Amino acid sequence: MTLSNIDEIVVLTVRQPYADLIVDGRKIWEIRRNSVNYRGHIVIVSEGKAIGQVKIVDVKGPFDVDELLRYKEFHFADETFLRPYSKGRKLWAWVLADAERFDRPVDVEIISVFESPLRRGRLIVGGTKG
What is the mean pLDDT of the chain? Predict the structure, then answer.
């Protein structure tokens, strides 16, 4: 993919190894504590860099942890992560499609909260933040 500075993007920060699994198209459910109304492209940020993009196409749930464990091949999260993360509450599965890894990680500047935990930002290609 050829990258250029974009005025505004929607950003989701994801920890590793889940971020790599998403942009490689293997992780097709992102487990979150809340649902979102947004559908469309998001840029995946991990360790402070944009590493790829994907589309949110649906949201399923809410699920309890035992239900989610039946779908581990979609989200890759195990019980040792899910139980503490859920804090006893039900969780949502954001359904992802059309994953694409960028040729190289790119700086990203966060502008504002969009629909938590989604944020608005811009890519900084070939330059520096400032």
Answer: 93
